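Quick question, first post here. What does this chain look like in 3D?
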Amino acid sequence: HLMLLRIVKLMISTKLFEGIPLNVPFLATIPHGEVEDIIRKYSPGSYIHTEDSSYLDVAAAIKDAMARYKNNQMHSNLVEEFLSSFTRENMTRKMMLIAEDKLMQGSTQ
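> Answer (accepted):
Ran it through. Tokens below.
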């Protein structure tokens, strides 16, 4: 009951946007950055390791997840908060604000 998420820099996997609403924790081996921030914010039961982590770190995460699952101690994802932040309407609104801000900056220069 873990979703493996492996990404490289400058990439955001669609698995991220599928796993959080499905309330599945991640076993993520990812670089630091935006994806890490999203997982930490919306999926508190996930395990995050960087490309510097050893296979022993990953194995320990799997063992911990198995124990937590067995003991019914898995943390739920913040599904409602995630969905409200990443609706098409909210994302479009954010893009419009960024574009308007850039236009305003350009007109004052």
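The CA atoms of residues 15 and 39 lie 11 Å apart.
The mean pLDDT is 89.
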